[in-house]
Amino acid sequence: TNGQRYGIHPFIVQIRSLVDHSSLPGITLGDIGPKFGYNTTDNGFLRFDRFRVPREAMLMRYAQVDMQGHYTRPPHPKLNYLTMVKVRSGLLYSSGVYLAMACCIAIRYSAVRQQGYHPGENPTEVPENTILNYQLQAYRLTTQLANAFAFWIAGKQQTELFEYLNSQIEIGELDLLAEVHATVSCLKAFSTWACADGIEECRKSCGGHGYLRVSGLPDLFARAVPMCTFEGDNYVLIQQTIRYQLKQLQKHRLHPLAAIPASFDYILDLESFAMQQLVIDEPLQWLDPLLHETILKHRAIRLLVELHAQLEALQDQGRSDAEAWNDLQSEFVRVARAHGFLVIARTFSSCVTNVPDIELRAVLRDVYNVFILRHIEDNVSEFMEDGFMNGIHSREIRVIVRDLIANLRPNLVPLVDSFNFSDSKLWYSVLGRYDGQVYSALYETTKKDARNASDVTPAYKYIQ
Amino acid sequence: TNGQRYGIHPFIVQIRSLVDHSSLPGITLGDIGPKFGYNTTDNGFLRFDRFRVPREAMLMRYAQVDMQGHYTRPPHPKLNYLTMVKVRSGLLYSSGVYLAMACCIAIRYSAVRQQGYHPGENPTEVPENTILNYQLQAYRLTTQLANAFAFWIAGKQQTELFEYLNSQIEIGELDLLAEVHATVSCLKAFSTWACADGIEECRKSCGGHGYLRVSGLPDLFARAVPMCTFEGDNYVLIQQTIRYQLKQLQKHRLHPLAAIPASFDYILDLESFAMQQLVIDEPLQWLDPLLHETILKHRAIRLLVELHAQLEALQDQGRSDAEAWNDLQSEFVRVARAHGFLVIARTFSSCVTNVPDIELRAVLRDVYNVFILRHIEDNVSEFMEDGFMNGIHSREIRVIVRDLIANLRPNLVPLVDSFNFSDSKLWYSVLGRYDGQVYSALYETTKKDARNASDVTPAYKYIQ
C-alpha cells in the first residue's frame, strides 16, 4: 500500500457472479485435474488479469489498511503463525487417527488370515499359522500401533495447547507462540511421514488383499500422504524448528541464566552433556521413562551443538550464512527429529502415567515402551556416535523390544478395538470388519463389480 | 497321485468354452475388483467344484505323471525355483527402471521449478532458488538416482546370470541354482522396497504437483509397489536367503575346507572377522571400493554369526527349531540385507570399473560412491555395534556424502537424460517433459478435464 511492500496477507475475494455463477471478468479458473486422492475436493487454479480487489476483501483482524492506505502492523509479527499452528496440530492428530485406522484394519485381518508354516512344521499335522502369530508380522504392526497411539495422544495434547495459546493471545500474551510454532512444525513433519509410511506398512502386511481398493488401505494412503507436502512441506517445516533450536542455543550461550522454553530444556545441558555416558546395570532399566528422557535429551543437545559447530566452521571457511545453511540441510532431519520425539515421548509417557486403571495402564505402558524403544532402535547410531550408548545397549534394546512385542500380542486386537471405529469409519474396509467375516465379504464385493455382471464380457463378440 | 501327495505342481486348465466363452460347468470365476493399480490387468478369482482336470493339463517338462499314475520326480528338487529366479531377477531390473523413471521426472522438474529463499536472502534482490540447488533436494534425489543405477545394473547382471544358469541346467549342471535363488530372493526384496519408497520420495520432492495424476508419479507408485508383496512377499523371501546363509555357515563350521559359493565368501572370514577394526588414515579412503567390500563383508559375517548364536541360545533354552526361528524373525531383515547389498555393491562397482570412457567413469564412480556411502550412512549402527566402525567414521561419511552430492549436482540432469526415456515412456508426465515446458503443459492438461468443459458446472441449476 502507498507503494510499500508489507508481505503476504489474506483476502477473501468474490470470483464468481452471484447471479449466474459465471466467473467474473478478469478471472480465469478451473479444476486442476485428477489427483492421487482427494478427488471429491475441487482444488482449482485461479488467475487474476487486471482484476480489482477491494480493500474490504482483506481479512483485517490483525494487520489493517485504512481508507487512506495507511498500513497498521499486527500486534505481533508472528500472529499469522496462529492459523498454521492450529492446522498443523490438527494434522498431527489426524496422523494418529489415520494410522490407527490402518492398524485396526491390518491387525484384525492378520488375526483372521492363516497362511504358511515355520521350517520343520508338517502341513499334514498342524493347521497353517495365523499370520499375526508370526513374530515379524506382530513386530511390524505393533510398531505402527505404538506410533498411532503416540501421534494421537500428542495431537490431542497439542490441540489443547493451541486452545490455551489462543486464550493467552486474547489477553495479549504471545510468549508461547514461537515455542509452540517451532515444536508443532516438526511434529507435523515427523507424524505425517510416519503416518504415510505406516499405512503403507500396514497395507503391505495384508499381502495382495491390501492392494484391493475394498481393503480401504490404498485410499487411506492416498488420503494421508499429501499431509507430508501440504500445509508446509515437511522438509521446509523442520527448518523452522532448527532455526528456533539454534536461536535458543545461542541465547543460552550468551546469557546462561536466561529462561529457555520448557520443551527445549535439553539446551540447559550444554555444559554437561559431553561428559554423559549411559550406564545400564540391568535390562529392566530400559523400561524407565526417566531413562528415555535422559537418552533423548542427550541426543537433542548433542546433535544441536554439532550442527551449530558445523555451521560456524563453514562460516569461518568463508561461506555466507545462506550458503552454510544450504550446505548442511541434509543434517537437519535428525536434529529436528531429536526435538520432536522428545516432546512426543514426554507427552505419551505422562498420559500413560495418568491412566487410573492399573491393568490398562500396564498395557499402555508396554505400548509406550514399544514406541520409544523402537524409535531408539531405528535411530540407534545417533545415540552411539559420540559414545553415549554402545553396542551392548543396542543389542539389549532389541531383546527387550522382542519381549515387549510378544507380551503385547494377546492385546493387539483389543487395543485396536479400543479405538471404537465403526465399520463405516473404516470406510467399510472388507479386511477390517469388526465381525471378522473377511472372506465371505470379499466374495460379496466382487458380485457388485460391473465386470462380473455377466459371465461373458460384452466385448467378447469383437474378438470372436 | 495313487493316494500320495507330492506337493504343488503347475497345470494349464481350460476354464471357458471354446464355442461361446462361457465358464465351464463346475467353474466359478470373476474379476477380483478394483485395485490400487494394474486395473487393466484382469486379476480374477476361480473356484473348482467337482471339476475334473485331465492329466494332460499338467506341465510335465520336469515332474511327470504317466498313464498309470506313476509319479516321476524332477531331476532336481529345486528345479521349479528356476521360474521364480527368472521372475525375481526381472523384478530387480524393473525396480531399477521404475525408480529411474521417477528420478527422471523429479530431477527434471526440480531443475525447472524455482521457489523460496535461504535465510538472509532478500526477495527484492535475488530471484527465487531453483529447487534442485537446495542441498536437501539434491541429497534426496541423488540418493534415489544412485539406487536406480544400482538396481538397474544388478538386475541386468542377474538376468544374464539367469541365462547362464539356464544353459547350465540344459546340460544337467544345477550347482548354481540354490546360490542364485538365495541371492535373487533378497535382491528382489530390497530392490522392490527401495523402489517403492524411492518413487514416493521423488513424488514428494515435487510438492503438490507430484500429487497430480498428470505428473505420472502416483500411477508409477501404484504400479511399482505391489512388487513388494507379489512373486513372494518380501518378508518371506528374505527368509530364503537367511536359511541358505545359515546352511553355508554351518557347512563351513563343520568342513572348513568345503567350497563356499563365491557371493557368500564372507563366511570364510568366520575366524578372523571378530578381530577386525576399521582404520581410516585419511578421508579419501572412503572412496575405495575395496574398502567398501571389506566393510560390507565384515557386517555380513558378523550379523550372520550373531543370528546363529541367538538361534542356538534359544534352542538351548528349550525352544523348538520353529519357535526359535519365529522368535528372531525381526532380526532377519538386517542379516539378509547385509548379503544383498554386498552383491549389489560388487556388481555396481565392477560395472563402473569396466566403463571405457574416463570422464564418464568418473561420474559413474561418484554415483556408485553415493549409493554405497548413503547405504552405510543409513545403516551405520550395524557397522558400529561391534566396534568395527566408530563415531568419527560415521561423521566423516556424512561429510564425504555431502561433497559427492555437491559434485554430482551439475550432472544430475545429464544422468537422467542418459536413460534415454521418451516422454511416452515416462507416461507423458507433465513434470518430466524433456523440453522442460512444465507450466504451459500443466495448464493445457486442465483444459482436457471434463470438469473444466464449461465455466459453470451443469450441477449449478440444482443449487440455485
TrEMBL record, chains A, B:
One Gene Ontology CC term in the entry: peroxisome
Residue ranges of the TM segments: 91-111
Keywords: FAD, Fatty acid metabolism, Flavoprotein, Lipid metabolism, Membrane, Oxidoreductase, Peroxisome, Transmembrane, Transmembrane helix
Residues of the Acyl-CoA oxidase C-terminal domain: 295-461
Record carries keyword Transmembrane: yes
UniProt keyword RNA-binding, yes or no: no
Domain (Acyl-CoA oxidase C-alpha1): residue spans on this chain: 81-244
Localization per record: Peroxisome
Gene Ontology molecular function, alphabetical: acyl-CoA oxidase activity; FAD binding; fatty acid binding
Reported cofactor(s): FAD
GO biological process: fatty acid beta-oxidation using acyl-CoA oxidase; lipid homeostasis
A Pfam family recorded for this sequence: ACOX_C_alpha1
Record-linked InterPro entries: ACOX_C_alpha1, Acyl-CoA_Oxase/DH_mid-dom_sf, Acyl-CoA_oxidase, Acyl-CoA_oxidase_C, AcylCo_DH-like_C, AcylCoA_DH/oxidase_NM_dom_sf
Family: Belongs to the acyl-CoA oxidase family.
Record's protein name: Acyl-CoA oxidase C-terminal domain-containing protein
Organism of derivation: Vannella robusta
